[in-house]
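Course exercise 7: structure representation. Students receive a sequence record and must write out the corresponding structure in token form. The form below is the worked example handed out in class, using rRNA adenine N(6)-methyltransferase (355 residues). Read each field label carefully; the graders check that inputs and outputs are placed in the correct fields and that the protein name is recorded exactly as given.

STUDENT ID: A-19
EXERCISE PROTEIN: rRNA adenine N(6)-methyltransferase
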Amino acid sequence: MKRAVSSIRSRDVAHLATAPSPAAAEAWDGRFRLHKPRGQHLLTNPRVLDAIVRRAALRPGDAVLEVGPGTGNLTVRLLESPAARVSAVEIDPRMVDAVTARVDALGLAHKLTVIRADAVEAEFPEFDVCVANIPYGISSPLIAKLLFGPYRFRAATLLLQKEFARRLVAAPGDSEYNRLAANVRMVADARLLMDVSKRDFVPMPKVDSSLVEIRPRAAEPNVDLAEWLAFTRSCFGQKNKTLGAIFKQKRKVLELFRRSRCAEERCDGNANAGGGSRLIALGGGDDDGDMSDGDSNEGHDGAPSFSEEEVAVFKAKITGALESCELAGKRPSKLSNDELLRLLKLLNEQGVRFQ
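STUDENT ANSWER:
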């Protein structure tokens, strides 16, 4: 993605050319075995660690959230910054002991709270900035949790797998553009900051990483976020098909018909009072690209019976909405969020619901 890469400053990526010398790297004494399948790769290049903290632009009084502190290479720098306190979430008890002992020895324990928990499941304390070297396996669900959960924060500076980072910041029309990027764009601005070589980690992973900044927008979008996330799941499940092709499939039409009927019943029964809440399921925004077409009937047992005529009328409403906004022949990966929002609004006006 040329325009994104061109914005990366040369001094921030200069270290990619050569690996850090052993003397320049943070020490790792091998006190316990690191598990690659769990994403335990310690960032050891001090220049990169310093750059991450610098890019996070921490302010006096900031509360910082760190996910996956490991043995504390980044944690120590965060504690030495102007930030008032750091909350570090770590699931591995060995890492908890390591970072706690290290911080105690440096006399910084009064600024640190270590939360032993799964970051995807844990309830985070209030924070202003999130700074983290995220285990690759939880990148999507963690970003979904940050952006679509109840948290209010200024920015997140995250070290992610390079390919994932490119997909996260992709724009409509880019080959990498996907559902995750569309969902993130709905509530935040994301940009690449710098690349980080795989040689800067112990043990060395198979791929390079990239540092990304995510800044939530001050104003919430004028859309039911749960409905939007379900809508993009339908659109991007087969993102290389046109919207007309996606929404004319019989199974898709039946799925949406059932969902829409159920939504009507909830509305009639006042059972959907919290429909616009940001406290939505993490699965709504945690995919990192294409997914299989979700045309199952799960969750619709007991839905009222219906006739073929009713389904035909419903399908005509979908077709009419697509034609009225001239998007039937477009692929979702080529469309802006404004265009997709216009289609969603038209479909909702016709009684088509996605969740």
